[in-house]
Amino acid sequence: MTSRFTHMLSELLDKRIEDIPQETRARATWMVADTMFSSCFGFAAPELQGYLARVGVPQKDEKHSIPVLGTGLYTTKEHAAMLYGTAIVSNELDEGNQFAKGHPAAHMLAPILITAWEEKATGMEIIRAFVIGYEVASRLAYASNMNDDMHPHGTWGNVGGAVVAGLLMKKDKQAIVEAALLAASLPIATSWEAAVTGMTVRNLYTGVGSFLALQAWTFQEAGFFSSEHVVDHLWGTILSKGIRYELFESELWEPPLLDKNYFKLYPSCRFSHSAIDALLALQKEERLDASKIASAKVETYSLAARLNDPNPVNALSAKFSIPFLLSAILHGHSLFDSFAGEIFSDESVRELAQRIEVTEDPEMTAMLPNKRAARVTVTDHQGVMYSAFVDAASGNYDQPFPRKELLGKFASMLAVCVCSGDHTNEIIDEALALPDVNDFGEWLERLAASTGKRGAGSQ
Length: 459
What we know:
Blueprint: H1 4-13, H2 22-42, H3 46-55, E1 66-68, E2 73-75, H4 77-89, E3 96-97, H5 109-119, H6 123-144, H7 157-168, H8 173-184, H9 192-196, H10 201-222, H11 228-238, E4 261-262, H12 273-286, E5 293-300, H13 302-305, H14 315-318, H15 322-330, H16 341-344, H17 347-353, E6 356-360, H18 362-365, E7 374-380, E8 385-390, H19 403-414, H20 424-432, H21 440-449
Parallel strand pairs: 5-6
Antiparallel strand pairs: 1-2, 3-4, 5-7, 7-8
Helix pairs in contact: 1-6, 2-4, 2-6, 2-19, 3-4, 4-5, 4-10, 5-7, 5-21, 6-7, 7-8, 7-10, 8-10, 12-15, 15-17
């Protein structure tokens, strides 16, 4: 690779906490909380409960030292990396970045929790590492524009995880560059088909990526090396259509890409959110009745147009089906309830989904990455058409959710794992006080003690 990647990384590593704008620090704090609570929520998934039953223990010991939030269990560093990374993405509620075209924070939380725990890091050290690691990973993703057939989990995010771990271990600049090049040389081969067909290996991609981010340091300390040339060949030829090298440094820190992230309230693939927003706007104006709808059409950008299967086979694939999601909404269901039980097998929801068409609009595709648009047109049995258009999904950096809505999301996620409902607000307040923390280990232990209601440890 040309020196632009390592030059960008080197420049970012020089950033002090004082160089990070106050609004960026505040946003990073909310992002860490959002990602951490997503992991609590995710640990309730059956496959993660099964994993925990094999690798978790109820009492902390020298080997099993890392608390698993929301479960009352402890595990090893290696399993903690894979567990947290996997849990974060299991419910499609984790933050993301449209310029990175994926979920940077999901790949950094496990390396942060584990390394900050061992190093007794302060909250400000964590915020600094998180912001820098997020920028590095997002810039690699932005510049390389990975192949659309691949899933982003477990790929470029691994680099951010390695960087945050190095910063928290107070490694020197050269060592962090070496570990970052190793992590960039070890992406896993991923498939977008795993997501749209509902295969939970898709969630494991992030867990394995978090593990590799930490292992990059074991490899670096042992004397393994990679190079800019290797990373350039991998990311410029094999994984992408070519690197736009100028994007490594274009408008660097003006503002940080972290400031352009999005938060999610809908537990579904981000590519579906513009269509959901358009339908909700239309429904609010027209009070649509599912029984009176003959058909619907969604016009959207290319990445979203792939979410067109009206017959999801399980809960995960339903999160990647625009026809199913819109049909569930038209039937009056909350998206938090539309992926399981009676709603998932509701024949009326299934039948209407068959009559919802999703197509690409090239003009909307041309608006990427700055805008992710969708137009929803509903036709009733009398032939009357109703249409709504949005040029971007809600929760984006330029149309943020009110603080109250994010707090409500946090409370909903914590409801599956807090020891008592009375503790929910205390846990949220504690998480949002991260910048004031002096010893992260003590802080994490307090949070772990406040959770565990429905985890594997209480079964």
